[in-house]
Amino acid sequence: MRRICQSDIQPLLNQGAKKSDIAASIFYAVVNQTIGGLAQGRPVKGNILYLGGPLTFMPMLRRCFDEVLGVTGTCPENSLYYVSLGAAYAAKERCDLPAVIETLKQYVSHSEWKRCRRCLKQRRNMRHSVRVTLRRTPLGHAGNAGRASVSGH
Predict the structure, then answer these.
(1) Total-model pTM
(2) Which of 1, 8, 18, 112 has its CA 20 to 30 A from that of 102?
(3) How far, in Å, are 70, 133, 137, 147 from residue 140 at the CA level?
(4) pLDDT tens digit sequence for 114-124
């Protein structure tokens, strides 16, 4: 991320781009990458729930998802805990939580991971191939402000 800031974002700031436009652009890039990865070309339909992590704490990120998907999603109260609650409700038997915690503290992995050098090299190359460009496009929530766009090259 630091390389992106130094090589792409800093020149935009030097040219007078607003920090808010650059931040919005990064949010839209995250939204598009997430939707592309999850939907894999299929339409996203139905009710949308925003659960956990950044979606809980960043209303602007939720608005970007809403705008791109053409929906109004919901971030329920206690959304951070929905996955844990689902796992608890799906449990087939009761467990002694302190015993589980103690077992996890004692756990030692005995497996080793084999590395794929080609995969690591591709990942490094992808990390350094993000570009940020400034283009004028209207934002639904911000009038006709300019927006920086982040894209992979």
Answers:
(1) 0.56
(2) 112
(3) 11, 19, 10, 11
(4) 666 666 666 55
